[in-house]
Specification:
Number of strands: 0
Strand content: under 5%
Order of helices and strands: HHHHHH
Oligomer: single chain
Helix content: over 70%
Distance between the termini: 60 Å
Largest sheet: none
Structural class: mainly alpha
Length: 165
């Protein structure tokens, strides 16, 4: 097969694949705009995430200076840390002995990871000059704590669902 024929074959596939998908599913193929709208990350935020984000947004609206924003982001980190500890405690109260030990060990390892990553972030951001980097530094720390909080929260929510069956 020549390169030219191969190229034409790829072109035909690219053109007809959407129609094949339509015929196979009897559903119209979504446009890019429809996909982007339906995958809006705001749709997938947990109740906890929305609450903490709303408090941060309100704080920033009331403190629009760089220093104020940095303070608000710091308060957001504190809120995520508090939520993490609350959720961890709730999980520990509901787990059996073996699972408590497993979660305790996993959390200890996560704390080591968090602390090491914080050290990396400190080293990285300390080289940068400017007050805006303080907020960015804290925002990166928030990502670590938020992700762990949401992981544990999803386990707690799953327990709520499965225990109520």
């Amino acid at each position: 097969m020549t390169k030219k024929m191969f190229s034409y074959g790829l072109l035909l596939l690219a053109v007809f694949i959407p129609f094949i998908g339509y015929a196979a599913n009897n559903k119209p193929v979504k446009t890019q705009k429809e996909v982007v709208i339906s995958t809006n990350p705001e749709c997938y935020k947990s109740k906890l995430e929305i609450e903490i984000d709303d408090v941060k947004k309100e704080c920033i609206e009331n403190n629009p200076t760089q220093g104020g924003m940095n303070s608000c982001v710091g308060k957001s980190l504190e809120a995520w840390d508090k939520a993490l500890n609350d959720i961890y405690g709730k999980l520990m109260n509901r787990l059996d002995k073996n699972n408590k030990l497993a979660l305790k060990n996993a959390q200890r390892e996560w704390i080591k990871y968090r602390d090491n990553h914080y050290k990396f972030l400190d080293a990285y951001y300390n080289k940068l000059e400017g007050s805006m980097y303080v907020g960015m530094h804290i925002k990166d720390e928030i990502s670590i704590v938020r992700d762990r909080t949401l992981e544990l929260n999803s386990l707690l929510e799953l327990m709520d669902i499965t225990d109520n069956k």
